[in-house]
Design brief:
By secondary structure, the protein is mainly alpha-helical. The protein has a domain of 163 residues. Helices cover 62% and strands 0% of the residues. Helix 3 runs antiparallel to helix 4 and helix 4 packs antiparallel against helix 5. The radius of gyration is 25 Å and the shape is elongated. About 4% of the residues have low confidence.
Length: 250
């Protein structure tokens, strides 16, 4: 019947003043909700770039679950702290998003500074310090070429994500610029905290009962972790293969 309230598994949804559902106020979970102009291929590509912070965060959680590396945990903790600071700044500054994007007042979050820009520039700054300071150093620059490529690629991608927020009208230019500046500063500061304050505590964290129970690892003093794990795995596999062969020959 006309004017009857809509039904829902948890109870009826109240109708609007005119007996319909037109006056109901809806809220959206904006974590992965990215819109782009219909038919705009560039906008669609940039919308996917806007989802990179989510993919990176999920990747870090997965990496921690399988690797249990202390430095990776600190990196992720820094991202969480960075997001919290962004939330605080947004609610202190309280600058709205571009009016052209929010004509109907759909967005409940503020826009200054851009969290996407802040996240990506934090990530890029931290990983740059990590590559040049913590990762093993080769004897010539050509062997370290991959570090320059990774670092430059991260900053380029951070720039694309930042531009996407302006192109898709989720933020103004100033909101994105301040997000980038904030991310760069926090990325450098957090790396200093990890390098000089937390890293000396890694051996204690890894060797404590909780650390041993959770199989937490500290690879700080291992210069080439990938090569170390490869050679260790190969040596162990060969050792076990010899034992199996010896048993069969008896």
């Amino acid at each position: 019947m006309a004017g009857a309230p809509s039904t829902h598994p948890n109870g009826p949804i109240p109708s609007g003043k005119d007996g319909t559902d037109n006056d109901i106020e809806w809220s959206a979970i904006s974590l992965t909700h990215v819109e782009y102009p219909k038919g705009d291929l560039i906008g669609k590509l940039l919308a996917w770039f806007s989802l990179l912070p989510v993919f990176i965060f999920v990747g870090f959680v997965t990496l921690i679950l399988f690797r249990r590396e202390l430095h990776t945990m600190c990196y992720l903790l820094g991202m969480i702290v960075n997001e919290f600071i962004n939330w605080v700044l947004k609610h202190l500054i309280r600058e709205p998003r571009p009016s052209v994007r929010d004509k109907e007042g759909l967005y409940c979050e503020y826009g200054m500074p851009s969290s996407h820009a802040q996240f990506m520039w934090f990530f890029s700054m931290y990983i740059t310090f990590f590559l040049y300071i913590r990762v093993y150093k080769n004897y010539n620059w050509s062997d370290d070429l991959w570090k320059y490529i990774v670092s430059c690629s991260c900053f380029i991608i951070a720039g694309i994500v930042s531009y996407s927020r302006v192109y898709l009208a989720y933020h103004t230019v100033s909101q994105v610029l301040w997000g980038a500046v904030t991310g760069l500063i926090l990325g450098a500061l957090w790396f200093a905290v990890v390098q000089f304050l937390l890293t000396p505590l890694f051996p204690y964290m890894a060797s404590c009962p909780i650390g041993e129970f959770l199989m937490i690892r500290d690879s700080t003093l291992i210069p080439h972790v990938l090569w170390f794990e490869y050679t260790s795995s190969r040596t162990e596999a060969r050792s076990r293969q010899r034992k199996v062969t010896a048993r069969k020959s008896q």
